[in-house]
Amino acid sequence: MATIGTQDLKQRIGRFRVLIIGRANAGKTTILQKVCNTTDQPEIYDTKGNKVRVMIHAIYASIADQLRRGNHVITNEMIFKSNPVFVFHDSCGFEAGSEDEFEDMKKFISERAHATKLEERIHAIWYCIPMDDPCRTFQRSEEKFFLECDTGRVPVVTIFTKFEAL
Questions:
Q1: Alpha-carbon span 16 to 154, nearest angstrom
Q2: CA proximity to 22, closest of 81, 74, 80, 61
Q3: Strand order in the sheet with 77-79
Q4: Which domain of life is it from (predicted)?
């Protein structure tokens, strides 16, 4: 059986695509910044490659925080300038129990896990579970994901965040 070299694999894939999932304030952005060795925010692109511009005025800061929290477009691509070889997709937090958000996430995973083009597939799913509230370690949303989502052959890595709080 022939093996594929690292450079050949990088060339075939192009960029490594990761879906990051977790509740609001689970530490998802912090993990992505650590992986990409930056403190900067990512640039966000829509499905057509157009940069999504987010303008926040001081007057609307609290409203903007509420809109940003858990209201991500899963198909948008987040790319950090410091490490553009990674493309991240952020699933909005569905801990609030929204069935529509959960179904959107399942559809995205199904489509991207079985995409015929390697560069369009998700290559990994990182599921962040915060450990700063021992009474709420696992919520129904996490159970539902692991019981109902067909990730195909895409590996799911569970990352326990805020572990120092325990």
A1: 12
A2: 74
A3: 43-45, 77-79, 86-90, 16-22, 124-130, 156-161
A4: Eukaryota
Outline where DSSP puts E strands in 23-94: 43-45, 77-79, 86-90
Residue indicated by tokens 């300038």: 81
Please list the alpha-helical segments (H only) found in the chain.
Answer: 6-13, 28-35, 61-68, 99-113, 140-148
Q: Which amino acid is at 77?
A: E
For 39-89, the pLDDT digits (tens) are: 999 999 998 889 987 644 433 444 444 444 445 789 999 999 999 999 999
Contacts of 7 (CB under 8 A, 6+ apart): none
CB 115, CB 95: distance < 8 Å: no
Per residue in 90-106, pLDDT (tens digit) is: 987 666 557 888 888 99
> Distances from the Cα of 112 to the Cαs of 33, 69, 73, 99, 133, in angstroms?
23, 24, 15, 20, 32
Cα→Cα distances 32→40, 81, 84, 114, 126, Å = 10, 12, 12, 24, 10
Confirm if 19 and 112 have CB atoms less than 8 A apart.
yes
Which class for 80: exposed (0-12), middle (13-18), buried (19 or more C-beta within 10 A)? buried
